[in-house]
Every structure is written in C-alpha cells, then in structure tokens.
C-alpha cells in the first residue's frame, strides 16, 4: 500500500539462520559479597517476523536479557559467557561505536514509559527525523515526509499538524504510538519491547498491542516482547519463553504454553491468573517467593516451591527437555526417569 | 491603585459566583436517586439470608439506634453495612488567584466523583472498576475520610458519617473500617519495625494497653496473614512486595474492623503473589466476616473477588450489577468495551475495531453522556443529555440512553468471557 523509499538499505535475508540467536548467555554482577549471576545459561532463538514473548515475575531477568541484546547493560553488570548472534554474527562484544550504529538501525527498543524515551524539548517530528537521518541515507524533506507517513501508520490523527507538537501535547496512548513510530522508523529487523503497555490503561493497552502486532506483521519485524502480563503475551506472541530466577523454565508455542503448560512453575503461574469464565473459590497458589540472586538453590531453582520435586531436582540443574509441544527445564520430562509421578501429562499428553 | 482594587474585588466576586455555581450543580436533585430507591428493595432482598447469616456468626450486632439521618432503611428489610448516596467530590484545579486575575481565567473544578450511589451488604465484596481517572480511588478516600465530600452522604451501619461530630463517637466508628493501599512500598514507614507498624492502630485506639497484650496481638496478626511472629522484629525493606502487602493487611486488621477499603491491593504485585494475596483476603473474609470495597482496574480480579460490581467512567457509575450478571450480560457500551480489552488467545488480532479512543480530560468532560465520543451507539440525545442510572430486569442498573431505548444489540462477547488466557 505504501511504497518504501528505495534508498533504504535492505539487509539480505538469510532464511537458514535465525534472526537472533542467544546462546548460553550468562550475565554477572560483581558485588562485595561475591559475584551474583543474574542470567544463567539462557538460550533461545527468534526467527524473522516472529514475536517471542518473554514472561516472568519481577527479578526473573527478562528485562536484563533484553538490555544485553541491545547492548545497554548497565555496569557493573556484564556478559560473562555465551554469545548473542544477530543474523549469525556475534554482537555481544562489538565496540561501542559499532553497537551504537546497530542500535536503532537493526535493533530498536520500546520502553515502558513513553515519556522517558521521548525528549521533552524537541517536537516528535524532530526526533523522528533525527533518528532517520542518523541511520538512513535520506534528505531532510524525505525524512519529514516519511515521519508523517509513519505517524499516520501508527494511528495518529492529523499527522501533518501533530508532527510539530511536543511530547507533552500527546496523551499517554498517543505517546506510546509515537515511540512505536520512532522504533520502526529505521526499519529495524528486531524490536525489543520492554513492558510496552504496562503504564497504559486497559483500553489503550489493547489498542497498542494490536497495533504493534499488525505493524510487525506488515514490516516482517521480529519482536522480543518482555512483559509480566500473560494476557498480553497470549494476545500478541507466537512463542513464549517463561523465565524464573535468571533461567528459562519453559519455551514453546504460545497456545501450548498457555493451554498445556508443562513446567510446574508455568502451571502454577497460569493457575494463579483469575479467569473470567469460571467461579473459582481459590486461585492456584505457588507458596513462597522467587529466590534472591544471593540464594539460588542448587539443582532446579524452582525446587523449594515445587510440589513435585524429587531428589534429582535438588541436586542437578535440568536442561530444557522436550515436553509435549514445548520444552521445559524440568526433570519430570527426562526420558531416563524410571518412575514418573502418575498425575503427570508427560510427552504429548 | 483604585483600578487594581476594583479588579481584585471583581475577581473575588467572580470566584464567589463560581463557587456558588459549582455548589448549585452539586445540590441539584438528581434523577437516579429515584432509580436507586426503586431498585432498592428487590436488590436488597437477595442477599438477606447471607447478611443475616453473617450477623449470626459472631459479627457485631447491627446498631439498634435509628439512623440519625432518617434514611428509609426499614423498607429494605436489611440494612446495608455501607450506603453511599449521591456522593460528589469536586477539586479546585483553578490557576492561582493572581493568574486568574491577569488572564481573566475562571475558576475550574474537577468533578472527580459526580453523583455516585451504592450499597454494600455486610459480608460481601463490592468492587468499583474503571480506568485511571474515573474516580474510583477518590470514592475510596472519601469513604475512609481522607477527603471531604462536596455533597452526598456516606452512611456506615446506620450512621451518617457527616453527622457524627463528637470526637469520641467518630473514633468509635472509624475503628470499624480500615484501608489497604496499592503500594506496599509507600504505605509502610521504613524506619519502624514491623511490630511497631502493626501495633500503631492498637495503641491509637487504645484497644490494648499492656505491652505483653499488644505483643501477643501483633504475633497473632502476623500469623493470621501468613507471616511468622519473629518477622515483627524486622524492617519493611527486608520483605518482598507480597509480604509487605501482608503486613499492610495485618495493620488494617489490628483494630478488628468490619469493613476494609482495598484500593488496588494487588496491582503492584506479580501474578503469583497476587494469587496469594487474593486467597488470603478470601480466607480472612470467611474467617472474620469482613466486608470489602474492592477497587481495581483488572476485570478478571474483580470477577474473582466481587459479589457486586460498579463500573465507573469519569466520576459516575455507568453500570452496576451482580458480578456474574455483569460479566455474562454486560449492557453498557463502556462495560462491553472494557470486557473486550481483556487479552485472550481467542481474540488475537480482532481487537482494533472494538476499542477506540481514550478517556477524555475530566476537567472538561464531554457534554451529555461523557462516554459518547467513544461510544458506537451514540446519537443526538447522548450528546446533549446525561443518562441516569435506571434499573433493568435482573437487578442490573445502567446509565445509557441506547440501553433504555433498546438499541444496544446483543452482546456477542461470549468467547471473550468464556476462556480468557486458559
């Protein structure tokens, strides 16, 4: 429907390689009381045009993973192991200047609070144009025309007038639309959206997630959607990764994880969400809280809260194992396990 | 000089006029009071058995003293624990006096709560739901006395709170209700130990005087909310968000209240912790016969907790119904829109048409029905005339011209309601 300007440099797509590949990522925070491991051996891929939801409780490490990918890890946090590959090329150890050019161009970010990602002293048009001129080979006039196009695309009424308005003249929902336009303006291949709708009202939230999903479909942009809201994930994501205490607990297609969660933690998490259709007297409750980074238990990090834990869970950390249509880091799904608890829907149940 | 003096006195007169205007508006008789009374008996008749049961098992006796204000409670049969009648609260958001004078700007009022009425039956949970700025938290604060209402009445167990003027009597009433706030990080004094925080209401109301008795009561409260008595010696920062909310609940329970106002008690918490807190609140309600006013923007949580729900939009209740009815057969277009916003697997990608617009600025609400700019059913009447809350069959009350005229159509959101997320 819209003709993309030919000047925009298109990266030749390599379909055989996942767009983003995170391999055995480990993030450490050196502290006086020893090194804290915030992300421990996390691996996942995101394909082109795919929306991967990353869900977990606060402190599970989901935002940190996003920050590491886009190279915004705040010191003293550092990548202590593993690698991050964009289109097959490692980006976790790029020099700052090269990372800066990549950021915004190939990987963009949407933050929770639209006010902090917009400069209050510049009009939204100036900010869009500046971003485009930094990354794309466009003239000022072309950039401005494209900015108007983008504002229209994200659903801002009267974009020709609104482009010269300042961020404070927009409502919260409209500001987040501007931020989405800003993220999309250099045609990135991957957007990391960190709680993009958490600061918004429910009626605005549903508009924003629908918009994000539609635009990423149209532009074939991959999205890593970080949120604590399972509803937003269910609505938006293709696949979902569940994080717990800096590790992946489960990863799989969203329908499977939502309807047939395999990991006991995911099951607890799903059960703890109140459901509209049913009269439940009590919600499923996972007792206790996520361990602090200083006290992550041996073996599976979830074992002290897990109703199905056995000896092996307390000693050896489980790998991601196939569990039905998803993969779960849980010993219940180990093939060599002689006695499986009877209630367990193991393997394609 | 005389020019300035004249200007000042003119501005003063205008201010006075503006105040009178605002008050005039406030004192206007409102139609939905009538609707309220019509709906009263049939609505109140339903939970009578529950209420009497609650009163039977140890709940404090219903006050025999006739209501000082002469509320016609007798005809309802059961006296609601809390009755809010035509509650209004307007905030002065005018510019400073000199600015008004120089810019010739009039006084401006934000009507945060604009004629809200509801009853809460003893032992039940009444929820107010709506988006930010709809006035739900203001209602909570008005009820516990943190704000002064501009007009309207709050009747707690037969006592009109505005008419109880004697300090001792006030104190006696105040002891019977408490509030739980949204942010457990902000509502606990970081310099106090937990035992001192929880003991504060006990000391203030003089419920226990001996040190040992206070200590025992604090330990009992901590156990009741799922913490250990040893936690009393710690400071709030040593606890997680969920545990802090437990401390807040323990403090709220310290003076053995009957009624708790819970303002978004779980909004700052993770879902698994939210489940723990909601379960705890349920258990405490069962054990202590508590009555809740539950305020939330999360419809699923409201559905889970409430017996009756009021949906608020820009300071008014637009629909009020039993929880099950509201979610199975919502009538007001705004309620329907809110329900359509709940994300679900079934509704993937079909959402953009259902929800539109944002909440307007409450200082300059649209004329007529304040929802009309976002409403798919709005017509000329909606744009000019504010609808009153009218009873429908089934005890539901809705403020909508379209519903009244029968043009609201069928609710086809069965898919939305049936299976959300799971």
The oligomeric state of the chains shown is heterodimer
Decide which structural class fits the backbone of chain A: alpha/beta
Biggest beta-sheet profile of chain B: 8 strands, mixed
Low-confidence stretches of chain A: 1-10, 338-349
Structurally, the number of domains of chain A stands at: 2
Structure overview:
The complex is a heterodimer of chains A (349) and B (422). Chain A has 349 residues and is α/β, with parallel strands linked by helices. Chain A is built from twelve helices and twelve strands. Chain A has two domains: 223 residues, P-loop containing nucleotide triphosphate hydrolases (Rossmann fold); 53 residues, no CATH class. Among the domains of chain B are: 91 residues, 3-Layer(aba) Sandwich (Rossmann fold), CATH 3.40.50.300; 97 residues, no CATH class. In chain B, helix 7 runs parallel beside helix 9 and helix 9 packs parallel to helix 10. The termini of chain B are far apart. The interface between A and B is large, with 50 and 52 residues.
Furnish the topology, listing elements before pairings:
The complex is a heterodimer of chains A (349) and B (422).
Chain A: E1 20-31, E2 34-46, E3 51-55, H1 62-69, E4 78-86, E5 89-90, H2 96-102, E6 107-110, H3 114-117, H4 124-135, H5 140-153, H6 159-162, H7 172-184, E7 190-194, H8 202-219, E8 222-227, H9 230-236, E9 239-244, E10 247-253, H10 254-259, H11 264-271, H12 311-315, E11 321-323, E12 326-328
Parallel strand pairs in A: 3-8, 3-9, 6-7, 7-8
Antiparallel strand pairs in A: 1-2, 1-4, 4-5, 9-10, 10-12, 11-12
Helix pairs in contact in A: 4-5, 5-7, 7-8
Chain B: H1 2-27, H2 32-45, H3 48-56, E1 82-92, H4 97-103, E2 109-120, E3 125-129, H5 136-144, E4 151-156, E5 159-160, H6 167-174, E6 177-180, H7 194-204, H8 211-224, H9 241-253, E7 259-263, H10 271-288, E8 291-296, H11 299-305, E9 308-313, E10 316-322, H12 323-328, H13 333-340, H14 380-384, E11 390-391, E12 397-398, H15 401-404, H16 414-418
Parallel strand pairs in B: 3-8, 3-9, 6-7, 7-8
Antiparallel strand pairs in B: 1-2, 1-4, 4-5, 9-10, 10-12, 11-12
Helix pairs in contact in B: 7-8, 7-9, 8-9, 9-10
């Amino acid at each position: 429907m819209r003709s993309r300007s030919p000047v925009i440099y298109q990266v030749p797509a390599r379909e055989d390689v996942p767009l983003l590949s995170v391999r055995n990522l480990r993030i450490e925070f050196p502290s006086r009381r020893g090194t804290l491991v915030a992300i421990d051996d996390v691996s996942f891929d995101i394909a082109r045009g795919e929306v991967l939801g990353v869900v977990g409780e606060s402190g599970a490490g989901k935002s940190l993973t996003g920050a590491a990918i886009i190279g915004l890890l705040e010191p003293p946090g550092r990548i202590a192991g593993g690698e991050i590959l964009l289109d097959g090329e490692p980006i976790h150890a790029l020099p700052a200047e090269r990372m800066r050019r990549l950021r915004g161009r190939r990987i963009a970010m949407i933050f929770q609070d639209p006010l902090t990602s917009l400069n209050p002293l510049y009009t939204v048009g100036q900010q869009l144009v500046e971003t485009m001129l930094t990354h794309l080979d466009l003239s000022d006039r072309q950039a401005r025309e494209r900015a108007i196009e983008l504002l229209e695309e994200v659903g801002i009424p009267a974009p020709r007038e609104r482009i010269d308005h300042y961020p404070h003249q927009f409502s919260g929902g409209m500001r987040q639309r501007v931020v989405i336009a800003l993220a999309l303006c250099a045609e990135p291949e991957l957007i990391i959206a960190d709680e993009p709708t958490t600061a918004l009202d429910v009626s605005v939230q549903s508009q924003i997630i629908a918009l994000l999903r539609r635009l990423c479909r149209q532009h074939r942009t991959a999205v890593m959607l970080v949120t604590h809201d399972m509803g937003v994930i269910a609505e938006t994501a293709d696949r979902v990764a569940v994080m717990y205490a800096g590790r992946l607990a489960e990863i799989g297609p969203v329908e499977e994880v939502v309807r047939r969660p395999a990991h006991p933690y995911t099951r607890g998490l799903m059960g703890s969400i109140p459901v509209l259709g049913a009269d439940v007297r009590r919600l499923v409750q996972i007792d206790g809280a996520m361990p602090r980074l200083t006290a992550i238990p041996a073996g599976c990090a979830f074992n002290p809260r897990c109703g199905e834990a056995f000896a092996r869970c307390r000693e050896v950390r489980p790998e991601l194992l196939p569990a039905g249509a998803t993969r779960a880091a849980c010993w219940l799904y180990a093939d060599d396990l002689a006695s499986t608890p009877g209630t367990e829907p193991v393997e394609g149940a | 000089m005389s020019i300035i003096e004249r200007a000042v006195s003119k501005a003063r007169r205008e201010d006075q006029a503006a105040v009178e205007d605002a008050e005039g508006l406030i004192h206007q008789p409102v139609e939905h009071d009538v609707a309220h009374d019509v709906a009263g008996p049939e609505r109140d008749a339903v939970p009578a058995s529950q209420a009497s049961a609650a009163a039977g098992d140890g709940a404090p006796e219903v006050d025999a003293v006739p209501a000082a204000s002469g509320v016609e409670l007798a005809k309802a049969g059961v006296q609601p624990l809390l009755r809010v009648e035509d509650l209004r609260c307007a905030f002065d958001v005018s510019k400073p006096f000199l600015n008004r004078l120089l810019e010739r700007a009039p006084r401006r009022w934000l009507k945060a709560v604009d004629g809200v009425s509801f009853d809460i039956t003893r032992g039940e949970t009444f929820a107010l739901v709506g988006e930010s700025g709809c006035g739900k938290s203001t209602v909570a604060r008005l009820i516990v006395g943190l704000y002064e209402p501009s007009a309207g009445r709050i009747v707690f167990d037969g006592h009109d709170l505005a008419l109880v003027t004697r300090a001792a009597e006030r104190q006696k009433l105040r002891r019977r209700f408490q509030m739980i706030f949204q942010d457990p990080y902000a509502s606990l004094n970081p310099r106090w130990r937990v035992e001192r925080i929880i003991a504060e209401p006990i000391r203030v109301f003089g419920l226990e005087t001996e040190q040992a008795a206070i200590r025992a009561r604090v330990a009992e409260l901590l156990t009741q909310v799922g913490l250990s008595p040893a936690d009393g010696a710690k400071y709030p920062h040593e606890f997680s968000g969920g545990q802090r909310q437990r401390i807040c609940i323990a403090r709220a329970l310290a003076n053995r209240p009957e009624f708790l106002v819970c303002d978004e008690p779980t909004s700052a918490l993770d879902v698994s912790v939210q489940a723990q807190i909601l379960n705890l609140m349920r258990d405490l309600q069962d054990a202590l016969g508590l009555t809740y006013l539950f305020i939330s923007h999360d419809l699923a949580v409201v559905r889970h907790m409430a017996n009756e729900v009021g949906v608020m939009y820009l300071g008014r209740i637009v629909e009020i119904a039993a929880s099950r009815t509201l979610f199975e057969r919502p009538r007001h277009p705004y309620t329907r829109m809110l329900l359509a916003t709940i994300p679900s697997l079934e509704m993937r990608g079909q959402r953009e048409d259902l929800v539109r617009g944002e909440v307007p600025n409450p200082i300059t609400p649209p004329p007529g029905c304040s929802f009309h700019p976002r409403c798919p059913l709005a017509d000329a009447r909606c744009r000019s005339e504010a609808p009153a809350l009218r009873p429908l069959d089934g005890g539901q009350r809705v403020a909508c011209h379209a519903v009244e005229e029968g043009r609201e159509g069928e609710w086809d959101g069965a898919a939305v309601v049936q299976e959300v997320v799971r």
